[in-house]
Write a structure and sequence with these properties.
The protein is built from eleven helices and 17 strands. With 316 residues, it is α+β, with helices and mostly antiparallel strands. The protein folds into two domains: 191 residues, no CATH class; 78 residues, no CATH class. It has a four-stranded antiparallel beta sheet with strand order 2-17-7-8. A three-stranded mixed beta sheet has the order 5-4-6. The protein has a three-stranded antiparallel beta sheet with strand order 10-15-14. Helix 3 packs across helix 6, helix 4 crosses helix 6 and helix 4 packs across helix 11. The longest helix has 20 residues. The structure holds zinc ion.
Length: 316
């Protein structure tokens, strides 16, 4: 039986210890309270405040919450090692928000996938066609990684993730403008079966001009100018009608799936082909599944996509 301690106690008691310490001196950070030091029961639970879609805040057991995130964020038919990698990433993302960069004052995290992480109740998963076997598989992926997180220099990392890179992930600096040592561009093979590995969208010249808020009449001659690319194969800068845009700006203005795009224009039609889906920084979910199929463990998957990080146990 576990012991549920008040959330306020959890806040002062949290710290990170190495997953496999060689000795007591290996402990990186401990802020154990007197009460926790006296606790002899191994398993305690951690309540996370979660802002639900209806605006209410629910104190949710961390591992139950992570199960709901994995159900919502990754297909349950993915390989077990990929699901375990997703569980660690989701847990790290949630606790990072709880410990520091709170997007929602007083709340750890919300269930909006466009803001924080998607979340699905087990009963919702089952009522929408999920099976009990799949539900158990996801629950196992969470329990087998219980309290495990990723750190860099003993700090929880920004565990960003996305669906599909299109073959190579992106540097954080290329997308968000600031360098993050563990969010570097890496190859991500084996994603070809992903739903949005490659997409093509079409615009009329007028539609294209409207998206960029420019005069359609300027789209004549060689209006697509020089293009530079990022390490991850995304468009860094592109000249359109003599004006420079970043790849991120074009992605936002045209509503593209990624910044890895090619633009061609013939007659009245502008064709934009994209590779990948998402910001492409951090772990590729389809790439993680491909690595798992190839026999990699979840720790190998995680330390590949987040270079230089360490898998540790979050001490509560
Ligand atoms: Zn949020």
């Amino acid at each position: 039986m576990g012991i549920v301690l008040p959330a306020i106690l959890m806040q002062v008691a949290q710290g990170i210890t190495r997953k496999k310490p060689d000795s007591a001196q290996e402990t990186i950070q401990t802020e154990q309270t007197e009460l926790l030091q006296q606790t002899t029961v191994a398993e305690v639970t951690f309540n996370l405040p979660v802002l639900m879609a209806n605006g209410t805040t629910v104190q949710m057991d961390l591992e139950d919450y992570i199960t709901g995130v994995v159900l919502a964020e990754m297909p349950a038919d993915f390989e077990m090692e990929a699901l375990k990698a997703q569980a660690v990433v989701a847990r790290t993302y949630a606790l990072k928000g709880y410990c520091g960069k709170e997007k929602h004052p007083g709340r750890a995290i919300c269930t909006d996938p466009a803001c924080c992480q998607a979340y699905c109740l087990p009963e919702e998963f089952l009522s929408s066609g999920g099976t009990n076997i799949s539900l158990q598989k996801v629950a196992d992926s969470v329990s087998q990684t219980r309290l495990e997180v990723l750190t860099f220099h003993s700090e929880l990392i920004d565990a960003t993730y996305f669906s599909c890179s299109g073959g190579r992930t992106e540097d954080a600096q290329a997308v968000w403008g600031s360098e993050v040592p563990y969010l570097r561009s890496v190859d991500s093979p084996g994603e070809e079966e992903a739903a949005h590995y490659m997409d093509t969208v079409f615009f009329t010249l007028q539609e294209f001009a409207d998206c960029l808020q420019i005069d359609k009449e300027t789209l004549s001659g060689n209006w697509i100018g020089d293009i530079t690319y990022t390490a991850g194969g995304g468009v860094e800068n592109i000249f359109v009608c003599g004006k420079v845009y970043t790849g991120t700006q074009i992605r936002q203005k045209l509503g593209l799936r990624s910044t890895a795009f090619v633009i061609t224009a013939v007659g009245n039609t502008v064709t934009v082909t994209t590779k990948g889906f998402g910001h492409r920084v951090g772990m590729s979910q389809y790439g993680a599944d491909a690595m798992a199929v190839a026999g990699k463990t979840y720790e190998e998957i995680l330390t590949y996509y987040y270079q230089g990080t360490v898998l540790e146990e979050f001490a509560i």
